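Course assignment 3, question 2. Fill in each field.
Student: A.L.
Task: Predict the tertiary structure for the chain below.
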Amino acid sequence: QVQPVESGGGLVQPGGSLRLSCTTNKIIFSAYTFGWYRQDPGKQRELVASITNTGRTSYTDSVTGRFTIRRDNTKNTVYLQMDSLKPEDTAVYYCKAGQDLWGQGTQVTVSS
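Answer field:
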């Protein structure tokens, strides 16, 4: 398995939480930086959070303090924990490994 596989999207009320998962093989997982992106229809895809293979993280301003990205080296998985979700977080979320290994995307909808 080379292409990342995402899971964990769904429908949640404002203020709720979701956890997204991104899994790939051990070689890819160990070598690359991972990023979570999101895209709304008609908008550009934006980088939400990233984590290097040494664990250094970064976040876009709009999610700082609400989202947490982390790696689980025992499961070859990168997680995006999303708390205090807002309607404007609604989008398709994509995981990317390295420069160009994209997952298929998972829908996140925040609505009452």
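Instructor remarks: The mean pLDDT is 95. The helical segments are 26-31.
Grade: pending
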